[in-house]
């Protein structure tokens, strides 16, 4: 007769083959096929309990087969709020029930949790916010290029017709005054530019303020010519038009605009002979206000004058009331009466640079603050967007989105944008793709709306549990030294904040830090990129997938913790399902394992106990973990020759007895687990030379009658061994 040890090692050393053989047994295959085909139809705890085959399959898989009759009890388990430490499942001593509840997505109401709907995934949201930030910079760079072209070429214009013939100059001039060059009539603009502004009936005066400003920005005669010795535009007019252009193109807050304003300020300061020259010039005054950290809209000329003429030796002067105002005052040479000493400029080179630096700091700071406010609003508002119409009706969100993709709201209708957002960017015949504009395709790809406008499930590389498991596995590989722990914690933090930003397998494999992290965590140091890609893109429910055909448990563990599709993209969250794919896969795997252990127990109960202990050993965290599980306790008592009567003692004394006999940390080491089981099987052989006790009586105790109430069952499940 084969010994217990030999039988255990025969099964354990060929476990994958044994599992495959068991999975192919007609009854196991039939029940598994039924479970996979029907678990998706479960939409409530009622549905789950009503389908006896589905219910019993899950119960057996999770080691709770002895409780098949106790459906009222199991309802309380499944309807527990797992986030509440005082909920029913969390309070039960036997943690099998908690693990069972975690394997399903039931709410306390008994319904299936719908899941998280997201109009935009976190990765797309971050990318779009990055685009929004970049657009502020890009708009400024584009505006600066157009401004430079205008400045370089306006001097060559000798008539209004020259200006009208140059499309870039024409567009620049009209845009600076808030006029749409595409809609403007060239002949009408000619009449505006040649208007006599002193004549109330002239075309410019009749058309209104914008046209009056456009005419005033040039010096064309009524016949369209430029007078001999004159220019179409003075330098001052050119600079003012450039300023207006930055404002009109919404690039006034860009770094390029700040650089232009600084250069213009320094040029204009050459003609300043006293403080009033500065404060009476709105541009110069606003520049100084910004440098002083003040809002130009709410800052008076008197305030700026008071700062600039302060006596810095007087602690009570206006400038000395603020370190920043004092710093600004120090960049000028005005006397307290506003005058300048003979031969002294308002600023020297060093002072001009110091003021320019202050201006840039607060100009950019204000821009960033405004940008941050818009970004914060976007992030918060998007959390509640469940339909495309809600997004389109929020003007702040709408403008933020269009700005991010450099789309002018005046160029497109909301109807068109809606059709784009409802497009499938992966379909070459979708509306967004047929427009043949990459901005529109990118816009469609940035959101998750179905064809009816409803938000879809979010794309997420890992669930919270998956990320938590990966980090735990990684930390378990770290050495005990403080340097190893410090470095490991830093890598874990990087992983935690980075992993959810990925949108494909390729991104993961190209990030060496993340790849090294998962390779170490899952014990796959020899895996190539090609192997990792095959693992991560395997369908765990397809028996023919790479992972399932490999029989490698580490491969399966890695695949289960990630949510990549077979094409390498990130899967959308499964909505309204009783079990997610990873949990279905775990349930199936556990069912196969239970079936193997059950078959082994029919021949030799010691083999079943050894297989069970081998499966559970890594989850043992303390002696109390052993005491809470009858089968684990049976193995430990047998191997260590501890008397069964110890269960009559106080629970803490029992734990102390176990602690003195073994170190539970050893059960994290597979080789030490095997050594312990060798000891157990030898002891089992000596104690069980005749027929063994049945499997169920050891693993699950004596059968309980169906008439026992739920409350009594709860009390039984919560009994602490030893009565304590």
From TrEMBL:
InterPro entries: AGR-C-984p-like_sf, DUF1217. Gene3D superfamilies: AGR C 984p-like. It comes from the Bacteria. Pfam families: DUF1217 (PF06748). Keywords: Cell projection, Cilium, Flagellum. SUPFAM superfamilies: AGR C 984p-like. This is Flagellar basal-body rod protein FlgF. It comes from Hyphomicrobium sulfonivorans.
